[in-house]
Amino acid sequence: MKPAPLRTLTALTLAVTGTANAQEIGIDLRRPTVKRSQMPSFSIGSDRAKIFLRDEHQRDLVALQAVAKFRYLRCHGIFNEEMNIATRQADGSLRFDWTNVDRFIDQLKAAKLRPFVECGFIPEALASGTQTIFWWKGNVTPPKSQAEWATLIEAFARHEIAQRGLAEVRQWYFEVWNEPNLSGFWTGGKDGYFQLYATTARALKTVDLKLRVGGPSTAGMGWIPDLLNYCKQNNVPIDFISSHSYAATQGFLDEHGKGGGTVLVTSPETLVAEFTRAREDIRQSAFPNLPLFISEWGPSYSPRDPIHDSYVCAPFILEKLKHCEGLVDGMSYWAFSDQFEEPGPPHEPFHGGFGLMNVDGLRKPAFFAYQFLAELYDAEVPADSPRVMVTKEGSRVRVLLWDYSPPKADAPNNPFYTRDLPATELPEAVLSFHGLKPGVYRASEVGTGWNRNDVYDAYVALGKPAGQEAHLPSEILAKLRQASSGEAEALPDIVVARDGEATVRLPMRTNDVWLLSLEKK
What we know:
- The protein has 521 residues and is α/β, with parallel strands linked by helices.
- It has helices at residues 55-68, 99-110, 146-164, 166-169, 189-207, 224-234, 272-283, 313-324, 365-375, 413-416, 455-461, 474-483, and strands at residues 8-10, 13-15, 22-28, 34-35, 43-48, 72-76, 86-88, 94-96, 114-119, 132-133, 138-139, 173-176, 212-219, 240-246, 292-298, 330-333, 379-381, 388-393, 396-402, 425-434, 439-448, 489-496, 502-509, 513-520.
- The strands form 5 sheets. It has an 8-stranded mixed sheet with strand order 1-22-21-24-19-18-17-4, with helices on one face.
- β15, α8 (313-324) and β16 form a beta-alpha-beta unit.
């Protein structure tokens, strides 16, 4: 932590900088607390299972988990041909080898994660066709035999139970396929997907009735009422609903990473309105209490969209997560790393990749959104401001606050978010605390925003130095790590009198994010 200035303020006024006006934020620590929602830390996404066998991917996952503490991870391709799980024997029978699957799940366990299993894609030995998607060629055709698909699913579940114990595997989620309402991901149509879903669900329940299975894992919140109706009419088990949505125009799939002219949708109801409709569809179904998981989400569905690198992405994440609390049961941001090869390996250090981190593990502003959330305490104090989260633990207090004012774009995300987009000064935030225990408090702040823990703009300021493909030279990496260290800065000590009141002033600009910490000595 950076040292505090050599001064102590009593009855606290921390005037960092600011304008003549102010945003008044009242914080009454005497109010009854509620348990803070764990929805934001439910899950994180990644490319596909095979990439976890690389040391650098695991390195960055462990670094992420050290501060963000997600509970599940979802990725593509656990059954991809590259995982070498299924071979056809001379007599026509199938032989399964779970070596690579086990290595993948062991990597998750080492990072204190459980799998949110996306059951796909089709091993070549079971496939009815040859159509694939992405550089790593996931087969998207239906199984030529539903019975053989059921055999694979049962064998997988039984093997993992034998390896890890029934109690552990009962805590996993098994999601059937990925975005089957897009022809690029599934050639079998809606009826074919429902057949695949039924086969998968019944196979899992044959192994153990408490294994959790769901879907439809669609793009754009599609097919939810249809799947619920199908399960009711055909007595098919379902334990949760999952689907995907992104705050971007122009479609749902950018298979080859061409960009596609995506534009960030900035209206307040973006994502929230879709999730509200999905929740209502569930409530009106025969399964009104099913959990709703958003198993992919973010500002853009394109793996080459510079919004992912921008400082604007951090408050976007916080804004949407806060609005979705109580509406959905879990959200899985897509994805944690730019080591992501759907359109092929990246060739530039900042290419608009999905990740919270770039290929060298540099931390983008979006990373800090999740880090700051994880540093909040479990007891939340109700706050009147919609962009403030107040938490406490004993005599310690942490406050997360942000502004979300995405700049008005005059072009698609690419090139708009590749430009230098300076923030606009706002009135300072004045946090008026009530109910603090008298005494002396340590105080610190850490934030992200334009040119503050903003690794992309730091890279631009260095002249966008080239590297070896997507990897930068060590001396450049050192400078960028320093510019995005996320190190907290100590503020002057606070002396709180008997009235328990104090005031903290923080400078604010558009799309700034701050985490303020107070701890009684």
